[in-house]
Design goal:
The chain is mainly beta. The protein contains 19 helices and 76 strands. The chain is globular, with a radius of gyration of 31 Å.
Length: 1092
């Protein structure tokens, strides 16, 4: 591998050109450290990446003090050579003691490694996992027992740990709190990927030859108890990562297992009785598809463990376009329907909500794409009190290269690699592309976001796999060791200690009994301003284990208080402890306190979820938008139900109207005490053929009762179908409705309605209407119109748009609108929002509407909802708008907008909406991959015959200047859900809503002074599940309570003060002192409002 040694030398020379003072980490050369480990791989005809799929997965790293001299040592596993142990001799120099220590290993293919004091003698032992499919090797894992004199003896069989499966890694922890260390053994299936029938439920069936195992330590012998404690061990387990930690803050350690390929991940919750419950699908909404390495840590200092899992989505645009494919919608749904859950091609960051649920925020955090990623490690690189993220990347032979796959699938090439009846693997493997990929180092910015920072010095192109951190020189910062395939390993020295900022406290824990390293200890440090939390669990990342001394960075050098929860549940407390030291703590020397109740305390509650015995479920009709237009990023066919309430029969009690989707009738619900009862006698004429998008109770005919307007639409319908017509129903005063014969909202064409709002526009004492058009069927991107309907007082409406509001014509894809006196002149103005639209204010001038030139029109968004209220008590009405949010593959700003090009590019009488984004070079590039674009527009295959020709293509390279000039072009520059504070005279101050309000699209907002402190608060809901697999579901919102501080600034309340729910929220109302929530394809959720 001489060329990669030369390559590394060139890279190190380039790095040296940048001042070391500018870099957080310094890459040490082998001549400086004496570490010359390389995990070199040589394939042959019998053993290669085609005969063994994990051939290039690489090896692991373990850091620990094997001779108790205070200096952490390093162990590397090798796939085809002997493993190496390096003794730390100080001053960042190491000595190879593999031969004298006897830990080189006798198996053919080593993978993960763990340092653990297995026999409780005070010395670290080394457990090595072995795998591979090498003839003559039985893959037995090896356990090297430390003799205390720098030598080890192999005793895996004696301890019951000589497993012969395709072992990846092992994590030792005391799952049953009996005082000794048990082990979770992660194995990878031996069966070929293509041999599985996904319709067969293989998960509960145990694989006698492999499968994951939980082994209980029974008097020094490890016994398989997997089946009886609830651990899966099936042939579909493709485990690449196991991470142990307390995810629900009950003091007991839980397990997260990341599985490669089609099998979903597992989250095992410790039941505190020696068993586990697998709860992933209850706790987490979406996961990585080909899950690899993982880590668990508290990234936001809230005391709860968050989970990060790596995948293979490239961060660089050109690689994304040349090596990536995504499942289509049908394959995704097939996997979901067969029990493999919602899996997506991206890294995932599961933010712990503290209530046994997680919000996946990898896209918001900026860590969803890091390429072919293996080890993921959270640690505080710069000692500022926030955990940063390192990801080891690279694959020596990239089998995902799309041009390679196309090339080898051709008949001519297939014939050339066949020798008789055998495949010539040398030819097949040699032509697989081999390109180093940059490692990623994300600095935690706070506010749940990270930045991949070149100034860390860690963004080295390589073929990296296992990695481990530890304070190798005892200077108070964490150094980093990375194992590479076919190139020298990386040894990084952290220079935070030489910088002016950054503080730390480190712990050397001495436990009791058979858990000498106090594995499972939880530590909380408080500096007077914030808490900092860490769990003592060194096995993490990919096939690796860390320095066993827990380390916390701190932002100041103020003395701290420390709370230690030991594995047996007892607690110890230390006050006024100086920082910037390694603190040695012996559990036996600490005062003993009784275990405390670890159940989380409830915050104040404003809402209480009521049991809903109502059998009603909203049923969305089956329609796949992507089958009609392959370039749509999201389905548009799931907008309901937008429930409304009103007293329609005059009994003083609200009824609730639930609009029906296509082929489902609308429903009326009556209150009986605190329960809702379905009115089986309620019917609306001609209701089931249409889909009601929004509805309105109002007195249309001035007779004192509530009539009903249904705004109908739906992408399912052709623009020529009369089912799109809106309907007006007159109330007889008793809740019985008769359909008007009016053609609504206009008789000039069928109208795909999205919203209806009422106001006395002309001040004649009756209610007039605005109706907005969502889109024109089969013409996504083409702007729709708004309609003003004047009421004659008797329920007859006239379209006066061309005279009263001509600027509503072709205004955009309208999603919502409100009438509100925004200019404080005693009449109601109209504000219209939508997709690819600004916030359009139409000032009411004696019943005529004039489009304002307000700065709000420049905020182009994917707006979904709008409400108004005086948030800061100044007498002016402010605005809150629900937008797409920031937890998305999409990002937009005024400098770098999203642009949609709409044209019939392939001249087949079908409009093609091509969604693009602007890059630093000023050009716009498509979001869609080559094959998606070709499926929609066949002529592009001639323009881009292969992926390399497409990988750097901008929109200007795809289409002629004439085609682009004639295209409709609309843009988005704002995706955050936002507040606009009215300053008067058409001026507004813009604020993004809190970060938690950006987790998902917001479809519904409800305003009220819920906490009775004199200002308006907000409850909100959203989520959108039906997005293309390459985009991924938006499912991170569990409802939201935004508390107003009185000045119009809002904060997301932890736990929502009781307003907490899953699902796709489409509407929120207050009825009968209850909050009622309409959810797509789900039941209604009912919350008792406790202050009313």
């Amino acid at each position: 591998m001489k060329k990669y040694i030369i390559y590394l030398s060139i890279i190190m020379l380039a790095v040296s050109c940048q001042s070391k003072d500018d870099l957080l980490f310094e890459l040490k050369s082998p001549s400086e450290t004496n570490i010359e480990f390389e995990n070199n791989l040589i394939f042959d005809q019998d053993f290669n990446v085609y005969t063994y799929r994990n051939f290039y997965n690489g090896g692991g790293v373990s850091i620990g003090d094997i001779n108790n001299d205070g200096l952490p040592d390093i162990y590397f596993t090798s796939n085809q050579s002997k493993n190496l142990l390096y003794q730390n001799v100080g001053d960042f120099k190491f000595k190879d003691i593999t031969d004298i220590s006897g830990v080189g290993g006798n198996r053919a293919w080593s993978t993960g490694v763990t340092m653990v004091d297995i026999n409780a003698d005070g010395f670290l032992d080394i457990y090595v996992c072995n795998s591979g499919d090498v003839e003559g090797d039985n893959k037995q894992n090896e356990l090297f027992i430390n003799q205390g004199d720098m030598t080890f003896t192999e005793e895996a069989t004696k301890y019951g740990l000589a497993d012969t499966g395709y072992s990846t890694h092992a994590s030792f922890f005391d799952y049953d709190k009996d005082g000794d260390l048990d082990v979770y053994l992660l194995n990878n299936s031996y069966q070929a990927i293509g041999s599985f029938d996904l319709r067969r439920n293989e998960r509960p069936k145990r694989d006698k030859d492999g499968g994951d195992k939980l082994l209980e330590n029974q008097d020094g012998k490890f016994v398989d108890v997997s089946e009886e404690v609830g651990i899966y061990g099936s042939v579909i387990g493709f485990g690449l990562g196991v991470t142990v930690g307390d995810v629900n803050s009950d003091g007991w350690e839980d397990i997260y297992v990341s599985n490669d390929f089609f099998e979903r991940d597992y989250l095992y919750i410790n039941n505190q009785d020696g068993t586990f419950s697998e709860e992933l699908t209850n706790a987490i909404s979406s996961i990585s598809a080909a899950s690899m390495g993982a880590d668990m840590a508290d990234i936001d200092n809230d005391g709860s463990a968050d989970i990060f899992v790596t995948e293979m989505l490239p961060s660089e645009y050109e690689r994304l376009k040349s090596v990536t494919t995504f499942e289509n919608w049908d394959k995704y749904k097939y996997n979901v329907d067969n029990g493999y859950f919602h899996q997506f091609t991206r890294n995932t960051l599961q933010l712990n909500n503290g209530d046994n649920t997680f919000s996946e925020i990898g896209r918001l955090a900026g860590v969803e794409a890091s390429d072919w990623s293996w080890g993921a490690l959270f640690f505080d690189m710069d000692n500022d009190g926030l955990r940063d993220l390192f990801i080891a990347n690279g694959i020596f032979r990239d089998l995902t290269d799309q041009d390679y796959l196309q090339y080898v699938s051709s008949e001519q090439v297939l014939m050339s690699i066949m020798s008789g009846e055998e495949v010539d693997y040398a030819k097949l493997v040699d032509i697989i592309p081999s390109r180093p990929v940059k490692n990623h180092a994300y600095i935690n910015q706070g506010n749940l976001t990270f930045k991949n920072d070149v100034n860390t010095g860690l963004l080295m192109p390589s073929f990296s796999n296992g990695s481990a951190y530890g304070d190798l020189d005892n200077d108070g910062d964490l150094d980093l060791v990375v194992s590479n395939v076919n190139m020298p390993s990386f040894i990084y020295e952290n220079h935070t200690d030489k910088k002016e900022s950054g503080n730390y406290i480190q712990f050397n824990l001495n436990g009791t009994g058979k858990n000498t390293m106090a594995i499972g200890t939880q530590i909380k440090v408080n500096d007077g301003n914030s808490d900092y939390y860490i769990q003592q669990q060194p096995i993490r990342g990919f096939q690796s284990s860390m320095d066993l001394r827990p380390h916390l960075g701190l932002p100041t050098n103020s003395p701290v208080s420390i709370e230690i929860t030991w594995p047996n549940g007892t607690k110890s407390f230390l006050d006024s402890v100086s920082v910037n030291q390694i603190l040695v703590i012996n559990q036996t020397d600490m005062p003993k306190t009784k275990p405390l109740n670890n159940n989380p305390t409830n915050s104040k509650e404003l809402f209480k979820r009521l049991d809903n015995n109502l059998e009603f479920i909203h049923n969305e009709n089956l329609f796949i938008d992507f089958n009609r237009n392959r370039l749509l990023p999201h389905m548009l066919s799931t907008p309901g139900p937008k429930i409304i309430n009103g007293d329609i029969n005059g009994d003083g009690i609200d009824e609730i109207f639930v609009p029906g989707s296509k082929d489902s009738k609308s429903t009326l619900l009556n209150w009986k005490n605190q329960s809702l009862i379905q009115d089986d006698n309620f019917t609306l004429m001609n209701d089931t053929e249409s889909e009601t998008i929004e509805s309105l109770f109002f007195d249309a005919d001035s007779d004192g009762d509530l009539d009903l307007y249904t705004a109908n639409g739906g992408i399912e319908f052709s623009k020529f179908i009369p089912y799109l017509s809106d309907k007006l129903y007159f109330n007889d005063g008793n809740g019985n409705f008769t359909q008007s014969k009016l053609e609504l909202p206009t008789n000039s064409n069928f109208f795909n309605s999205s919203t209806v709002e009422a106001s006395d526009i002309d001040k004649d004492g009756d209610m007039d209407l605005f109706v907005g058009e969502r889109l024109i069927s089969d013409s996504y991107g083409v702007p729709g119109s708004g309609v003003i309907l004047l009421n004659n007082g008797k329920g007859s409406f006239k379209d006066v748009t061309s005279l009263n509001a001509p600027e509503l014509k072709n205004i955009g894809m309208i999603t919502d609108a409100i009438f509100v006196d925004i200019d404080n002149d005693n009449d109601e103005d109209l504000i219209v929002i939508g997709e690819f639209m600004g916030i359009n204010i139409f000032f009411n001038e004696n019943g005529l509407f004039r489009l304002s030139k307000s700065e709000l029109s420049n905020y182009k968004g994917w707006w979904q909802s709008i409400q108004s209220g005086d948030f800061n008590g100044d007498g002016l009405l402010d605005l809150v708008l629900g937008n797409h949010g920031l937890n998305s593959r999409f990002s937009a700003s005024k400098e770098f907008p999203i642009r949609l090009y709409v044209n019939d590019f392939d001249i087949n009488d079908q409009l093609d909406p091509v969604l693009t984004f602007k890059r630093e070079n000023g050009k716009f590039y498509p979001y869609d991959l080559r094959h998606n674009l070709i499926d929609q527009m066949k002529p592009l295959k001639k323009v881009f015959p292969d992926y390399s020709s497409f990988r750097s293509a901008s929109i200007e390279d795809m289409f002629s200047s004439d085609q682009l000039d004639k295209s409709l072009k609309i843009e988005v520059n704002t995706l955050s859900s936002s507040i606009f504070i009215n300053k008067g005279n058409g001026k507004f101050d813009f604020y993004e809503l809190p970060q938690k309000a950006q987790f998902s699209p917001i479809y519904s907002l409800f305003l009220k002074d819920f906490d009775l402190d004199g200002d308006l608060d907000i409850i909100a809901g959203g989520n959108l599940y039906n997005a293309k697999p390459e985009i991924g579901r938006y499912d991170a919102s569990f409802g939201l309570f935004l508390e107003n501080d009185g000045s119009g600034k809002f904060e997301a309340a932890d736990g929502g003060y009781g307003f907490k729910l899953k699902g796709e929220v489409r509407s929120i109302i207050l009825s009968n002192s209850n909050i009622v929530v309409g959810r797509n394809s789900d039941s209604l959720a009912i919350f008792k409002y406790l202050n009313e």
